[in-house]
Amino acid sequence: MGLWLVYRWMVVCPRPPEVPLATIDVNKEAYIPGEAIVYQCNPGYIPQSSSRRYICPAFGIWPTVIFKCIRGLGFAPPLFAQVTSGTYVKQEEKALKMGQQAASARKKGAGVQACPNVIVTVICPPPPVSEFGVLAYHKIESGETFVFQETIRFSCLLPFAMFGSETATCQADGSWTPLPECKSVECPRPEPIEHGFINFALRATFRYQDTVNYGCNPPYTLDEASESRCEKTGTWSNKPTCKAPCNIPVNKATVLYNGRKIKAKKLKSIQHAETIWFFCKSNTEDCSYKTPTQCIHGQLSVPDCYE
Known about the structure:
Protein name: Beta-2-glycoprotein 1
Domain Sushi: 11-71, 122-184, 185-244
Shape: elongated
Mean pLDDT: 78
Low-confidence stretches: 1-8, 73-96, 111-118, 139-143
Function: Binds to various kinds of negatively charged substances such as heparin, phospholipids, and dextran sulfate. May prevent activation of the intrinsic blood coagulation cascade by binding to phospholipids on the surface of damaged cells.
CATH architecture of the largest domain: Ribbon
InterPro entries: Compl-Cell_Adhes-Reg (IPR050350), Sushi/SCR/CCP_sf (IPR035976), Sushi_2 (IPR015104), Sushi_SCR_CCP_dom (IPR000436)
Largest sheet: 4 strands, antiparallel
Number of helices: 2
Subcellular location: Secreted
Number of domains: 4
CATH class of the largest domain: Mainly Beta
């Protein structure tokens, strides 16, 4: 007697369409007719429509999914709940109030009771931008908002200087950390230096980040960087001085200068901060050794070991 296997073909629904910024409560390859799914927005996003629940029909094709998620104040209603737009707005306001109360309680060190099925998304309004300031990496557009812990970066238009932190962060209570200010800064006219000169554009005032360049009359040399910059403190970054060269006080000596041997009579002088090496005779051995000496603003000492 033969054994008959009877196959019954069943109509099923395939995997439901994906919705950006949302998840499905039961996600699998196939669903039998009558089986339901529920879309839920990711934390920080809210439904744009109330149609969250969809049922697999008998003919195996999902109905058109119109569910969408947008960023905003988040109150995630319980699964299968029917929420109207008006009710949703009230729940949003309630969620924001709860978030503010929770932030206040955390600051005071008090415990906060968790609320099931509620996701509080704190939103900060567009921050006021200081006059002559700009937002870097973000462009504020009409209606744009920022969520908790989102950070923005400020910069100031030259010649205005920034005072305060260049970044601000959206806090749990919906406010921003202290915002910077852009202020006008002027520096006094740079002072001349002895044995030197200043190169700069002719102008009535010197403002933040303006620069001037110093130079020395030969044979003097600068002891610092030639460029000086107007800083936010209203002062110049540096004021170099011109240093005198050093004459070599011996004529017959052979010295080491810039890695090569040269007669002192031929070298004659070296610049400020430069170094030469004298050859000194050893008292114990029949040889010589090198001893350095440096030019310091016109003064050069001959090593004691040199004869």
